[in-house]
Design a protein that fits this description.
The complex is a heterodimer of chains A (about 900) and B (about 375). Chain A is an alpha/beta fold and about 900 residues long. Chain A contains 33 helices and 25 strands. The N terminus of chain A is likely disordered. Chain B contains 15 helices and five strands. Classes of the chains: A alpha/beta (about 900), B alpha/beta (about 375).
Chain lengths: ~900, ~375
């Protein structure tokens, strides 16, 4: 680590960076950035996607580790963990992505309550703050709505509320308005202004890709390719660039080579088409449950037209497009595509359309060229045409330089271009593009649009796309405004603007929106839209609590546990699997696992057919172990029937057996045993020996020989009746308490990594230990309840009562589920995907639980190495407790070392998980 | 039809390319077919093997010594001599599964014809060994006492002899059996998870939806997944059989590997279809994980590879006919150990394919709905 340079920071900076560089693998996100951001102001980092804005903000927020250089926020070194801990309660970080840090199944209130708890607020304070925030954001009518069911704008407001719950001094907003409709965007910034009016000392740093928004800020930093291009007030930036607006200024500020080839989009006049419409929707509706996603939409799209759907996220644009693409069946109404009714199962029509879904849906693990090859194959491009067509597209969409790169490594704009190139690979007649330019920088967007314009005007392709960018909507031939599932208006951008008498399309849209919201929502539609702005006066809040510096706080842990428990409650299917699975398995195993050999099919090859041979064969018939099948007539049949596994045992009696026996010539009978399954073969060997011996004893007793010289007393200890179920119940309890709880927790942390809510762990005072143990706690509860159910089931169904100490068993079970859930947490903290976690859990845990625990094979029979391997996992220890208390009548006095070992496992797994989950991102 | 085949191949190649880029999955597959097979097949034995035994000898005579000496590997570990006082704690701790107690004056009483009692105590919680072990011990004691007495020449030849011969695995080598069954369990474990979870992942990433707007049918998608994952697992299993089991563990494989491969392919089809079916019943990876565990354990324990199928209650045997593993275990035992040919095992192959086809069809019916519902 380089020593911290003691140069004073620019006096009024809330945060500064000096020589900070950051790379992800080979990609450089920040390239020697030095910047000082003024305190007490609204500062914005502007620039296209993928230039390093998010990395910059996350470093300032203290959630990302600094690789090189120095950085400071709120007057201290961000490389110092102590300083980060000290300021974490004064900083709020709202990560990128609509509602990414929210918990979708939790209600609005529960989300906020969770954040309040993380900051150590007591019940009254939380109530007061949540009421105040909900009122001021206009969310107060919906405290009980799940966050996942909110519209995009409302999600962002809720995210903001969550960030503001602890009165931060530094508010960091990473693209808070991307994907939000213009009205909500305006409301969002007004809200920020009101909050700043109340707390003028609060500094705001935001990132945005909307250049038109940048005018609101006091101070701007324009970024490109990991570098700061320019800083200053919007006026200064415009003046320096000599450009009329910020968007133009930004383009002008770019380095020469980036700007080259950039020119405004040119779209030629639309050729007049007199043919039938390419797309026609009539009264199209889609309902999910009682939620009406699309409500009676009707529109027509002509050939070669560029038709835009304008509206916020969650307004029904994607659903409509999916219905037209045949992905979703419509609830009512009709949709016609290229003159035919849309039919999801019609494969021929799919050759004529190209579709690009909202998220990147090509294969990230295939290279650009492999993706092209895959699609060329699927669309059955003639082999001779394939290579030239792919080459042509790589060239036309300027992708040839990255043909062998993985799409994941490409900047967003290029990735979207790739998706478009692939969507037109098979020369479709219609393109359905769902938000194709979301998050793409202005230059890339203009270029993308030039491609669209050419496709429409030169190739005559009809283009149906959705967007939430106003300036894009302005480029469409016609647009339709959509909100809360309904089409508000359809027409050319100019006509719509004119109709409302508005100055701009944005004004017009806001006008239409306000009208729509003013009307009372219909009952079929549970008000999925934003409400009108309610600029409630902001009351002074209770004074902020003194920041706690505790390294461990039980209440934060409790907040995590409560939240996890609520999420589990909202997913009853998962809970049912977790509890019912073991119950059913115990029944199956209790009855099914039986090492006794019973009902073995056998047959006789009796070549003697005398009374003696029949008498000997009859000795086998009395036993329940054997089940006699049809006799065998010749040796070939013997071979065949044993080879199929039909017969496990064959008794062969040679001709002359009876005669020789009578003559005392001691003839020999043969017995064939199927040795494929050794344990069965061995048992059969024992049975045969026993049966023949007793039969011979009967024969000789008749001849008057003395009986055995010694008695053998046989005692089955711990299980006198020698019932399989008695021996099995303790083992099944062990097996279930190992695998199911581990699987439940294995996904817990890694899921948050995938959905993004892990950001809350990084940006709030909660420590890794509180977070991990808090998440683990509800699963310990479920697993322990499952233990009680299994114990009850063992007693009631199988009559297996606990002979020893019940408290010792219960304590052992509690410690064991702590260890098994901790094992899952450990897997979850080092894996990167849920798939890997689900795969790894059984592959790692199954063998120790089944084979090395003593459940099936006694531990005493394992080799030393195997025994030690088994002892490296908790099952072998709990098996001793389980068998010891249930069957052997033991108690804590004999078993305490196992209890201790289980406790040690729980601690060790959590400690390892803690190491695998650093507080800061890399 | 031609289009379908081309699609399946295309998507299958894609599936392989994806897998190749996921080092964690590749590692887990390699591990499950190498280290796991090696270690588990050594440990998995349900016959009496290395049974731990203790002797309480209050007689210390020639006869008790002879019996003790007769207790030998491989069935038993060398017996440990213990004091009667230590018996309870040692059995409680699971240190010994069997204890044989000779009373004082045992030999003298035998010679005097007073019929003394040898007490054999068995830890019945070790259920896989207790029953058979007791039978063996009984046999040893009876035989040794008889031999001891026969020194006095009163012994008679038995009226007839029974020659017991074991077919197919004459020395009852446990490792032959357990190694084959462990490979089968690895196949099951990996196939169900790999195929099902891969589908859920594609569903979550939206790539399935993307495929459904192209000229690709759900059947193509499912078959391509089965084909690609099946190929990987079958190749891995084959390597495991030849390299780990055959070469490293020195297990002679007598049956027809080609026929076994044919069965493995049919098995792949049905377990992969099962994985897809389970994926269509769940909306998230979390649910899938919890649903898959009980099914995997059931297939591991109740398919006849660990305990004999015919010892289970009839209702459970019937139920287990729905599990492809039941048929595959029976098939593999016939092919690998009994040298069975196609003529003998085709009914099991047919059952495998039939079960797989049912899974596949139900999954197909639910496919589209599950893709759109999970959005």
């Amino acid at each position: 680590m380089t020593p911290l340079r003691q140069e004073p920071a620019p006096g009024d900076a809330v945060a500064w960076l000096r020589g900070v560089s950051h790379r992800y693998g080979a990609a450089i996100a920040l390239d020697d950035v030095s910047i000082a951001i003024p305190a007490g102001s609204m500062a914005a980092v502007v620039g296209p996607d993928g230039v390093g804005k998010s990395t910059l903000l996350s470093i300032i927020a203290g959630v990302r580790r600094i690789q090189t250089g120095t950085a400071s926020a709120l007057g201290g070194d961000l490389r110092s963990a102590e300083h980060r801990r000290a300021i974490v309660e004064r900083v709020a970080h709202m990560p990128q992505g609509l509602g990414r840090n929210l918990y979708p199944t939790l209600t609005v209130f529960e989300n906020l309550d969770f954040f309040g708890r993380l900051f150590g607020q007591d019940r009254e304070e939380r109530r007061a703050r949540i009421d105040d925030l909900l009122r001021s954001t206009g969310l107060d009518p919906f405290p009980d709505r799940p966050a996942g069911k909110l519209s995009g704008g409302m999600k962002q407001k809720l995210s903001l509320c969550c960030a503001l719950i602890h009165d931060p001094d530094l508010l960091i907003l990473d693209e808070p308005t991307t994907g939000v409709d213009p009205l909500s965007r305006r409301q969002f910034w007004e809200l920020i202004d009101r909050i700043r009016a109340r707390r003028p000392q609060m500094s705001v740093i935001a990132a945005t890709a909307y250049m038109d928004e940048a005018n609101r800020f006091d101070w701007l930093a324009a970024m490109d390719a990991g570098r700061i291009v320019m800083t200053g007030s919007p006026e200064e930036v415009r003046a320096k660039a000599g450009a009329p607006d910020l968007e133009a200024a930004f383009v002008a500020l770019l380095p020469e080579d980036r700007r080259r080839g950039h020119k405004p989009v040119e779209i030629g006049p639309r050729p007049i088409s007199d043919g039938p419409p390419v797309i026609e929707a009539n009264g199209l509706s889609k309902t999910f449950g009682n939620f009406r996603a699309v409500d009676n939409a009707s529109f027509r799209i002509e050939k070669a037209e560029i038709f835009g759907f304008l509206g916020s996220n969650g307004c029904g644009k994607s659903t409509t497009m999916k219905m037209l693409a045949g992905l979703l069946p419509a609830t009512s109404g009709t949709a016609m595509l290229l003159g035919q009714p849309v039919d999801g199962t019609d494969i021929a029509i799919r050759r004529r359309i190209g579709y690009m879904s909202q998220s990147f849906s090509l294969y990230g693990e295939l290279t650009v060229r492999q993706n092209f090859d895959l699609h060329a194959g699927i669309f059955q491009l003639p082999a001779a045409e394939r290579a030239p067509r792919i080459r042509e597209l790589l060239e036309r969409f300027e992708l040839d330089a990255v043909a062998d790169a993985l799409p994941e490594a490409l900047p967003l704009g290029m990735r979207q271009r790739l998706q478009l190139a692939i969507a037109v690979l098979h020369r479709p007649e219609v393109l359905i593009l769902d938000e194709p330019t979301s998050g793409v920088d202005p230059i890339a967007r203009d270029r993308f649009w030039q491609f669209l314009a050419d496709l429409s005007r030169k190739d005559g392709i009809t283009i149906f796309l959705s967007t939430h960018f106003m300036n894009e909507a302005g480029l469409c031939d016609r647009i339709s405004l959509m909100h809360a599932g309904r089409l508000l208006a359809v027409g050319t951008p100019e006509a719509l603007t004119r109709e409302r008498g508005a100055a701009s399309l944005e004004e017009a849209f806001i006008g239409y929106l306000s009208d729509a919201i003013g009307t009372p929502p219909s009952p079929a539609e549970p008000a999925a839209e934003d409400t009108s702005p309610v600029p409630a006066p902001l009351a002074p809040l209770p004074p902020p609590r003194k920041p706690g510096t505790a390294r461990f706080d039980f209440w934060r842990l409790w907040a995590c546990a409560r939240r996890e428990a609520t999420e589990i409650r909202r997913d009853p299917i998962r809970l049912a699997f977790a509890v019912l699975g073991p119950v059913l398995l115990m029944i199956a195993f209790g009855f099914g696992i039986n090492f006794d050999v019973e009902r073995v099919s056998y047959a006789a090859l009796d070549q003697d057919r005398t009374g003696e041979s029949r008498a000997f064969l009859a000795a086998f018939e009395g036993s329940t172990a054997f089940l006699r099948q049809a006799d065998i007539t010749d040796p070939a049949e013997l071979d065949r029937r044993m080879a199929t596994g039909e017969l496990a045992l064959v008794i062969e009696i040679p001709a002359g057996f009876g005669r020789d026996l009578a003559a005392g010539r001691s003839p020999e009978a043969g017995v064939w045993i199927d040795g494929a399954a050794p344990f069965r073969a061995e048992t059969l060997r024992g049975y045969v020996a026993g049966l023949s011996a007793s039969y011979m004893a009967d024969l000789t007793r008749a001849a008057g020989t003395p009986a055995a010289a010694a008695d053998i007393g046989l005692r089955f200890r711990y299980n006198q009746e020698f019932r399989s179920a008695n021996a099995l119940v303790p083992g099944v309890i062990m097996l279930m308490l190992m695998l199911i709880p581990a699987m439940m927790t294995a996904v817990a942390v890694v899921r948050e990594k995938e959905t993004g809510s892990i950001a809350n762990f990084r940006a709030t005072p909660v420590t890794a230990l509180e977070f991990l143990v808090g998440k683990q706690l509800p699963y310990v509860g479920i697993a322990f309840a499952s233990f009680l159910i299994l114990l009850l089931e063992g007693t009631v169904v199988f009559g297996v009562a606990v002979k020893g100490s019940l408290p010792a068993l219960a304590a052992g079970a509690l410690l064991f589920v702590m260890a098994s859930t901790a094992f899952g947490v450990l897997i979850s903290s080092f894996t990167k995907t849920q798939l890997a976690a689900i795969f790894a859990t059984p592959v790692i845990a199954m063998a120790p639980a089944l084979n090395f625990s003593g459940m099936l094979t006694p531990v005493a029979s394992l080799s030393t190495g195997e025994r030690l391997f088994g002892l490296l996992f908790p099952p072998a220890w709990f098996q001793q407790i389980s068998v010891g208390t249930v069957s052997k009548g033991l108690g804590l006095a004999q078993l305490w070392p196992s209890h201790l070992a289980l406790f040690a496992f729980a601690l060790a797994y959590i400690a390892a998980a803690r190491l695998a989950l650093p507080k800061q991102e890399r | 039809m031609r289009r379908s085949i081309a699609n399946i191949l295309r998507l299958g190649i894609k599936e392989l390319q994806s897998l190749a880029r996921d080092p964690v999955l590749v590692f887990l597959i390699v591990w499950a077919f190498s280290a796991l097979v090696y270690s588990v097949s050594q440990a998995e034995k349900f016959e009496v093997d290395r049974g731990s035994i203790a002797i309480v000898d209050d007689d210390r005579s020639a006869l008790s010594g002879a019996i003790t000496d007769a207790i030998q590997p491989p069935f038993f570990q060398p017996p440990a001599l213990i004091d009667a006082a230590n018996l309870d704690p040692l059995m409680d701790s699971g240190r010994f599964v069997f204890v044989v107690e000779f009373p004082p004056r045992f030999q003298a009483d035998v010679l005097a014809g007073r019929k003394p009692t040898v007490q054999i105590t068995v830890d019945a919680t070790a259920m896989s060994q207790a029953g058979n072990g007791a039978v063996f011990l009984r046999e040893i004691v009876t035989r040794e006492v008889a031999r001891f007495l026969s020194d006095a020449p009163t012994a008679k030849t038995p009226p007839f002899r029974v020659a017991v011969r074991t077919r197919f695995n004459p020395n009852a080598e446990a490792i032959w059996y357990s190694s084959a069954m462990t490979v089968i369990n690895s196949i099951t474990l990996l196939s169900v998870i790999l195929c099902g979870a891969a589908l859920i992942r594609e569903r979550e990433h939206g790539t399935i939806e993307h495929l459904l707007v192209m000229p690709v049918s759900p059947t193509d998608i499912m078959l391509s997944k089965i084909l690609a994952n099946g190929l990987v697992i079958v190749v891995a299993a084959l390597l495991s059989f030849t390299v780990v089991v055959g070469w490293l563990m020195q297990v002679p494989i007598s049956g027809s590997i080609a026929l076994f491969l044919l069965g493995a392919v049919a098995y792949q089809f049905s377990v992969n279809a099962l994985g897809i079916l389970l994926a269509t019943f769940t909306t998230s990876m979390q649910q899938f994980g919890l649903l898959v565990i009980p099914i995997l354990i059931t297939m591991n324990l109740l398919s006849g590879s660990k305990t004999p199928l015919e010892s289970m209650p009839v209702w459970l045997q019937t139920l287990m006919q729905a599990a492809p593993s039941t048929h595959f275990v029976a098939f593999s035992q016939s092919v690998l150990f009994r040298n069975a040919g196609f003529a003998e095992v085709w009914p099991k192959l047919a059952a495998l394919v039939a079960v797989g086809a049912v899974f596949f069809l139900v999954a197909l019916l639910r496919f589209r709905q599950s893709v759109t519902r999970a959005q």
